Amino acid sequence: MAMKEAARIGLRVVAVALALGIVTAAWAGTVDWSWGFEDGTIGGANDWDYGPPAVVPSNTGGIPAHSGSFMAAAEYGTSIFSRYGGYSSVWPAGGFRMELAMYLDMAWTAYNDMRFEWISAICNNAGNHRRDFVFNMGTQTAADAALGNYGIYIDGGNNAGGDPRDNNPIFLTAGDWYLLRCTFYDDGGVVACDMQVLDTTGTTVLGTWTRKDASDLVSLIGGNRYGWLYAHPQDVIYFDDSILDIYPYPEEIIPEPMSLSLLVLAATGLVRRNRK
Ligand SMILES: [Ca+2]
Ligand SMILES: [Ca+2]
Ligand SMILES: [Ca+2]
After folding, report:
1. Global confidence as pTM
2. Ligand 2 centre from 180 Cα, in Å?
């Protein structure tokens, strides 16, 4: 099939799909708020106003930014905080994702059992705090060190100040950027959260902790609240690329399997007609 013809058929398939109300717009989702410090600032009150973190150029401390030319640094003793563009008391029909890129430095393993944590919180539908979702992180214990284990433990839970080893932890031994992701969704009328640690590109999931409290009825829950680095090791922590993605916005509505098969049928019909 000539390229031009293929393109024409493709356009007609989309036109048919639009006419049928199957597709409302493009296929790809869009991030609703993000802050990568690329303007050299921490933004306004709804971005990163607390602490505050310092914005530093890429390669500060020998660490390349997760993306772009800038990242942020939380010095020892500072507690950094973001509102992810602003709190929400509205539950999005398709749920939402809160994410942060953090550089986990194996130099921290010089200290035993040095704990820190990243918290993602949600609101209820009145805009008040509902629940924290906490990545407990910490370096190895003295006992681990005796066994030759030097690295960083992470697990997921709902308690700040929790042990990083008491809920099916992962153990990282490579200093690198990691994504700390919380995906909230409607699971049978109750809000569930998949807490995940991913590699720097977001392609490999290294750990998942699903948290769900039966009292978190979707009808009671709002949207995002804060991200909060509650405590951290005796060294600077670099971070970058905080993201809030709400599902679905109109551009993110993806055809269901039945609609997809209709699309294929429509495409097949058009190809046949063009061959006549
Ligand atoms: Ca950046
Ligand atoms: Ca824990
Ligand atoms: Ca979105």
Report:
1. 0.81
2. 15
Find the ligand nearest to 55 CA.
Answer: 1
Ligand at minimal distance from the CA of 165 is 2
pLDDT digits (tens, 9 = 90+) for 100-123: 999 999 999 999 999 999 999 999
Q: Which ligand is nearest to the CA of 92?
A: 3
- Which one of the ligands is nearest to 252 CA? 3
- 54-81 average pLDDT score: 94
CATH code that applies to domain 30-254: 2.60.120.200
What residues have their beta carbon closer than 5 A to ion ligand 3? 32, 245-246, 249
Cβ atoms of 31 and 66 within 8 Å: the answer is no
Residue 273 Cα to ligand 2 midpoint, Å, equals: 61
| Average pLDDT of the residues in 220-231 | 92
Q: How would residue 192 be classed by pLDDT, with cut points 50, 70 and 90?
A: very high
